[in-house]
Design a protein that fits this description.
Largest sheet: 7 strands, mixed
Strand order of the largest sheet: 1-2-3-4-5-6-7
Shape: globular
Number of domains: 1
Number of helices: 2
Strand content: 25-35%
CATH class: Alpha Beta
Helix content: 10-25%
CATH superfamily: Diaminopimelate Epimerase, Chain A, domain 1
Length: 153
């Protein structure tokens, strides 16, 4: 993101968690994602409410017609990674976000999040979100794992 003008002001920036805290940042255009360069070391200085959170920009414009959202995931500097190619916990938060802010008049949704294309790791997460009441939702995520490479830590 190069400018505040890349933000989609129709929707709020929020913290959310389905296991790990992340900040969802709505972006207007898919083309903005190719320009994003994370500076993870600065996250604790910027994310004052939760300095250990990750940053998860997303948009409703997608590369693939069967996807509803496109995302990237810039990891917390405490996680040991810079960018996650596919992020289930953040995608789960996107399900709740969709029901609360994008389509607040519906009680359930099923969709696909595409992620990782900018780092040559074409990934998908399948999301299901169900509103139980105003305060509570059920969130399910699924996908398929593939062997990429073996590393020693």
């Amino acid at each position: 993101m190069e400018s505040i003008h890349d933000l989609d002001s129709r929707y709020p920036v929020i913290y959310g968690s389905t296991g790990t805290w992340t900040v969802l940042i709505p972006i207007k255009k898919l083309e903005s994602f190719n320009r994003m360069v994370p500076n993870n070391k600065e996250f604790p200085n910027i994310l004052l409410e939760n300095s250990r959170a990750s940053i998860h920009p997303f948009c409703l414009e997608t590369k693939y017609p069967d996807s509803l959202m496109h995302a990237r995931h810039f990891s917390s500097p405490y996680s040991g990674t810079v960018e996650d190619p596919v992020t289930g916990t953040a995608s789960g938060v996107m399900g709740a976000y969709y029901l609360n802010y994008i389509m607040s008049g519906i009680d359930s949704v099923k969709f696909t999040v595409e992620q990782g294309q900018e780092i040559n790791r074409d990934g998908r997460v399948f999301v299901e979100a169900y509103r139980i009441d105003q305060e509570l939702m059920e969130i399910y995520i699924s996908g398929n794992a593939v062997f990429v490479k073996e590393i020693e830590i």
